Amino acid sequence: MSRLKNKTAIVTGASKGIGASIAKYFAAEGAKVVVNYASSKEGAEKVVKEITDKGGIAIAVQGDVSNESDVKRVFEETKNAFGTLDVLVNNAGVYIYEPIEQVSAETFHKSFNINVLGTIFAIQESLKLFGDKGGNIINISSGASNSPLPTGSVYSATKTALDALTVALSKEFSGRNIRINSLLPGIVETEGAHSAGFIGSEAEAGFVSKTPLGRTGQPDDISKVAVFLASDESGWITGEKITVSGGVYGF
């Protein structure tokens, strides 16, 4: 497969979970991939090795997306390694669920700084590398933006903000050949879902019972749609919020 041949992509937060899967799928389709990570160097290097062992091209680049100087460095290293950028996947995010009584300034700002401000920083830098040829941005949102859950008020607010960015920027980029879309996963089995105790729980069973396709999603389910959005096959799609949840609109 070579739907992304000759394209360069940055995937933020790609050391595990959905981001890691997207990075591997992009590479399998011919893209040169920058695997960004904040703290898990080992995880990112594992993803890179899996890609290169199969003949793909990838590098791992550390950078906390909520830190503007870190983001600038990630894009500088991308330019030094590959010269250009075609696709940006804003996947890095933090998932904090807590009762409203427990929301603090610290957790609020952490959520918005990573999930929203970090996306803005990355988009700003991507525009410099896209240049006149244009580019493609995929924001990894969540079904929680459509249907917030109890204790998820702040997290859901960050994802709703992300979707608003997607729609607004699709119009702001008019005439610049830059596409931007949101991808909204439903419940997905990731390392984080396992460590949170969700996988195998009654809560998971409850979500599955409400899902028309009758199962928990896998990272591959999201990655396949991300490949489509990154490819020329979706060249007439921008400003969209695409839910990938097995048939559940939101939750």
What's this entry about, in short?
The chain has helices at 17-28, 41-53, 68-82, 105-130, 153-172, 191-195, 202-209, 219-230; strands spanning 8-11, 32-37, 57-62, 87-90, 135-140, 178-185, 241-244. α5 links the parallel β5 (135-140) and β6 (178-185). It has 8 helices and 7 strands, in the order βαβαβαβαβαβαααβ.
Instruction: Report, as a whole number of angstroms, the end-to-end distance.
Output: 34 Å
- Domain unit count: 1
Task: Based on Cα principal axes, name the global outline.
Answer: globular
Can you count the beta strands?
A: 7
Structural class by SSE content? alpha/beta
CATH architecture type: 3-Layer(aba) Sandwich
List the uncertain runs.
none
Mean pLDDT, all residues = 95
Strand content: 15-25%
CATH superfamily: NAD(P)-binding Rossmann-like Domain
CATH topology: Rossmann fold
Instruction: Using the CA coordinates, give the radius of gyration.
Output: 17 Å
Q: Sheet with the most strands?
A: 7 strands, parallel
Attribute tags:
single chain; 251 residues; alpha/beta; Rossmann fold; seven-stranded parallel beta sheet; 8 helices; 7 strands; 15% strand; SDR_fam
Task: Summarize the structure in words.
It holds the Pfam family adh_short_C2. It comes from Flavobacterium endoglycinae. There is one protein chain. This protein has 251 residues and is α/β, with parallel strands linked by helices. The protein has one domain (8-188, 218-243): NAD(P)-binding Rossmann-like Domain (Rossmann fold, 3-Layer(aba) Sandwich). Helices cover 44% and strands 15% of the residues. The protein is built from eight helices and seven strands. Helix 2 links the parallel strand 2 (32-37) and strand 3. The chain is globular, with a radius of gyration of 17 Å.
